Amino acid sequence: MDKIIIKDLEIFANHGVMPEENALGQKFLVSAVMQCDTRAAGMSDDITRSVNYADVCKLISSEMQKNTFKLIEAAAERIAEAVLLKYKTVREITVTVKKPWAPIAMSADTVAVEITRGRHTAFIALGSNIDDKRAHLNGAVGEIAANKRCALKKVSDFIVTEPVGGVEQDDFLNGCIEIETLLTPHELLDFLHEIENAHGRERTVHWGPRTLDLDIIMYDDLIMSDETLTIPHIEMTNRRFVLEPLVQIAPYAVHPIEKKTISALLKALG
Q: What is the pLDDT along the chain (270 residues), one digit of tens a residue?
C-alpha cells in the first residue's frame, strides 16, 4: 500500500497531567503515516484524487489545539480517528505524538506515543424470534449504520429458519451484514450488546428465544479466543442459518481457520 507521510508537525497545545502544562502549554511534534492508494492521483496529477496533506495538517492541528488531554495517548487516538473518519481512502494511519518538554526531571530528547489504527471488515449475524422480528433486525441494522465508527457495506436477505438447541420456540428470522469498522473486536462486541439490550434481549435460557441476537462471525482474518469472544464464531461452519445469508453477501470470503470460502462451507454442510 502507498503511503503519505507527515513528519514532526510542530503544534503548540495544552496537554499534560500537570496543571501548569494545561495552563501554559508546550510544543508537540506530530507525525502521521497514512496508507492509501495514490495511483489515481499520480497518474492524473489531480489533488482531488489524493489525500491533501495540507488539509490533514490543519485537521491534526485543530484536534490538538481544541482539546486538552492529560495523556498524549488520548491525543494520538483523537488524531487517528479524526483522519480516518474524514478521509475514507486512508486505510490505516500511524500517528506519533512527541513531547519534547516532558516534565520528567531528567535529560531526554522527547517522550512519545505511537499508535496504528485502521479500518476493519466484520461480518455480523442477526437473528430474532420474538415480537416483530423484522422490525428488530431492521432496527439493529439502522443502529449499526448510525454509528460513526461503523460503515454498513452489505445486507443479506432475511430468511426464516427453524430453531436449534432443543428448546421449543417460534421460528427465527436470520440475516447477515458486512460492515467496515474502526472498533476493535471487543469494542464492537460491547456495542452489539448495547443494541441487544435496547431491544429487550434477555439471556435466561441457553439456546432460548430472543428479541435480538447479534454475533460477530468474522473480523478481518483474525483468529482469537478469550473468555468473552471467539473469532471466527466457533459454530458458524455448522449453522446453515448463518452461512445461507452470509453467502449472499460474501460468497468468496475465506474462513481463516478452515481456509475455505463461505460458498464451499455451505456446500460442505450438505
A: 999 999 999 999 999 999 888 888 999 999 999 999 999 999 999 999 999 999 999 999 999 999 999 999 999 999 999 999 999 999 999 999 999 988 888 888 899 999 999 999 999 999 999 889 999 999 999 999 999 999 999 999 999 988 775 566 688 999 999 999 999 999 999 999 999 999 987 665 555 578 899 999 999 999 999 999 999 999 999 999 999 999 999 999 999 999 999 999 999 998
Q: Which three cell numbers stand for residue 241?
A: 442459518
In the chain the domains, ranked by start, together with CATH numbers, are 3-118 (3.30.1130.10), 120-269 (3.30.70.560)
The residues annotated with a catalytic role in the active site are: 99
